[in-house]
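RECORD TYPE: inverse folding
INPUT: structure tokens
STRUCTURE:
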């Protein structure tokens, strides 16, 4: 902790909602220096052209994507690209000595056949993909520390898995009974214009979407299966709710021991997440709200 040397970090694809939140978090990190922003459509613009509220703190010019240049300047690179692009870029940057954190789905799956079935892209980077670690530190911290390729989890997956993990890992529920009822704000759909995200369409309305076919389903099932030691299927239904950001996931499952009461479960969750400060377990009778 006494080492004051900063880590040079770059972001490819920093213009979206995920990208700007990543920039904000990295600017607050005392051991990170953000030295590169890359993009195609936004190349040549300064960052405050896109997000004026950050101009007083940070105003790099977004550059064209040059992988050799990135590898020479960065030790860590975040990929904030649409699904199907990171898998073409990551192997080259890793070969150039970079550690990669991919925010898309490209490196979340241990079985690339599953990825291809859901994301409709054939892969030729198997040697790279096999080295990827699923980037949920509350479950895989040790592997993350030792890996040069992190597949950062999906938004619904993070909320759902943090709810299920303590119970599945300890064998306290019948995993086949798991039901995930999750609701997300509109920014989860990205910054590009979409008709269903227009205020006139989304306001005063709540709707399910991707029923039985949302791409986060196999991702949730993969990690649940890993925790349980056998294949698990879940019922997952996402909903769009008229707020800008946030997710609320209500997760149901049948306990193996019906004698477990609420205080027992709170103790189990407190113990499981006691070393992970980004997970807060609320006291009995207090329930989360998306405005917090």
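DESIGNED SEQUENCE:
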């Amino acid at each position: 902790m006494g080492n004051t040397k900063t880590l040079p970090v770059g972001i490819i694809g920093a213009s979206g909602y995920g990208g700007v939140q990543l920039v904000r978090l990295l600017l607050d990190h005392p051991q990170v220096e953000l030295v590169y922003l890359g993009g195609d459509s936004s190349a040549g613009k300064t960052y405050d052209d896109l997000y004026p509220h950050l101009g007083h703190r940070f105003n790099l010019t977004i550059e064209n994507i040059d992988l050799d240049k990135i590898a020479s300047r960065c030790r860590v690179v975040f990929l904030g690209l649409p699904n199907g692009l990171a898998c073409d870029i990551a192997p080259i940057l890793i070969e150039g000595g970079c550690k990669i954190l991919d925010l898309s789905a490209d490196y979340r799956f241990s079985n690339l056949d599953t990825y291809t079935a859901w994301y409709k892209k054939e892969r030729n980077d198997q040697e790279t993909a096999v080295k990827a670690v699923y980037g949920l530190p509350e479950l895989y911290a040790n592997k993350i520390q030792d890996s040069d390729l992190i597949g950062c989890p999906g938004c619904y997956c993070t909320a759902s898995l943090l709810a299920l993990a303590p119970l599945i890992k300890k064998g306290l529920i019948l995993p086949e009974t798991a039901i995930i009822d999750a609701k997300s704000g509109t920014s989860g759909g990205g910054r590009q214009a979409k008709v269903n995200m227009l205020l006139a369409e989304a306001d005063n309305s709540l709707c399910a979407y991707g029923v039985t076919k949302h791409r986060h389903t196999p991702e949730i099932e993969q990690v649940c299966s890993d925790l349980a030691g056998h294949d698990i299927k879940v019922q997952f239904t996402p909903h769009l709710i008229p707020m800008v950001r946030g997710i609320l996931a209500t997760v149901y499952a049948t306990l193996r021991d019906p004698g477990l009461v609420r205080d027992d479960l709170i103790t189990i969750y407190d113990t499981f997440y006691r070393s992970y400060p980004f997970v807060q377990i609320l006291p009995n009778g207090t329930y989360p709200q998306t405005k917090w």
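NOTES: The chain has two domains: 7-152, 156-272.
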